[in-house]
């Protein structure tokens, strides 16, 4: 893909939609995927529609030097004049055109290479598994197939800003695992801004360079996945049982006969479900603290396939619970385990002690 980077998208919007008060103040960088993460009803889609120009909230929007909205100056660029592509949770397709016709329409509307990042309908169709559906009409497609066509059409519009609202919600985890890293790399290669909305934390971790949590209409910053998740409060964004961490590894090999991928994490091996990842690419893993066990000696003759050596950096008791959270440094990364305070005391866990973190392979699959 080619095309010049459009610059960062600066969002500064504040207003009310019904009873929901929206405060959106964050930046989405060119060449990155910024995920707006939060529960249903938190205002994710409202913010996305305002960025698209399909809804209006008071404030200011700018893509690099280009102002899309500035209420103080009386500027409001309508949706059709913004360089955006969007795929919402409920796909809207041309029912009288085949899948191929829908894709080619998007290509024609995009104009020449100067319109932005370029990719071909053949490449997108292959990546999204749409080859067998090219000759079919949308009414004959499943919900997941319609979502993939909608995503493909948004990409082929050659946007400067790509807005994605739960675009893979109807797809199985295996299909999503193949598409999400590709989407992330697409943004990197093209320089476009991608805003990705989801309530699925595992999905967000796989696709995002930065996460912007939203709660009760408020989204006021974005941070790298590990830092963003570490700062998430309990409550409507994250239950105390979903606390955890993010590990970044490199795909070492695909093991299709086993349905697994083998990863390298700072010289240590991990095996995770799914053989779709490409060797040499980056993989991000959302690890729930409750799925991590700790041992003070290297375990033997056990079914758990992932054992990581590290050292404890922090032990913190959780008030009004029988649990403690133990932070373990693995090279330059941080893994959090949730165990009982009783176990932490019996094992003598304290900062500086070497431990082995045990992660079940099935813990990386759908819950």
Architecture overview:
The protein has 367 residues and is α+β, with helices and mostly antiparallel strands. It contains 8 helices and 20 strands. The protein has helices spanning 44-52, 99-110, 121-127, 143-156, 173-190, 201-207, 225-230, 341-347, and strands spanning 9-17, 20-28, 33-37, 59-63, 66-70, 75-76, 84-87, 161-165, 193-198, 210-213, 218-219, 244-255, 260-265, 268-273, 282-288, 292-295, 306-317, 323-330, 333-340, 354-359. Strands 6-5-4-1-2-11 form a 6-stranded mixed β-sheet, covered by helices on one side. β4 (59-63) and β5 (66-70) form a beta hairpin. α2 (99-110) packs parallel to α4 (143-156). The chain is globular. The model is unreliable at 112-117 (pLDDT under 50).
Characteristic key phrases:
8 helices; alpha+beta; 6-stranded mixed beta sheet; 367 residues; globular; 22% helix; 5-stranded parallel beta sheet
Condensed summary:
By secondary structure, the chain is of the alpha+beta class.
Per-chain topology:
Blueprint: E1 9-17, E2 20-28, E3 33-37, H1 44-52, E4 59-63, E5 66-70, E6 75-76, E7 84-87, H2 99-110, H3 121-127, H4 143-156, E8 161-165, H5 173-190, E9 193-198, H6 201-207, E10 210-213, E11 218-219, H7 225-230, E12 244-255, E13 260-265, E14 268-273, E15 282-288, E16 292-295, E17 306-317, E18 323-330, E19 333-340, H8 341-347, E20 354-359
